[in-house]
Amino acid sequence: MTGYWDGPEGEHCAERTWFTTRVGAAVGLVGAAYRIILLRPGSALAALQTAAADSVTMATLGAVFGLGTCLSAQVREEPHSPLDYFVGGCASGAVVGARARSYFAGTTACLGLGFTAALLKIANIEGWRLTGPPKL
Question: Which segments cross the bilayer (predicted)?
Answer without folding.
Answer: none
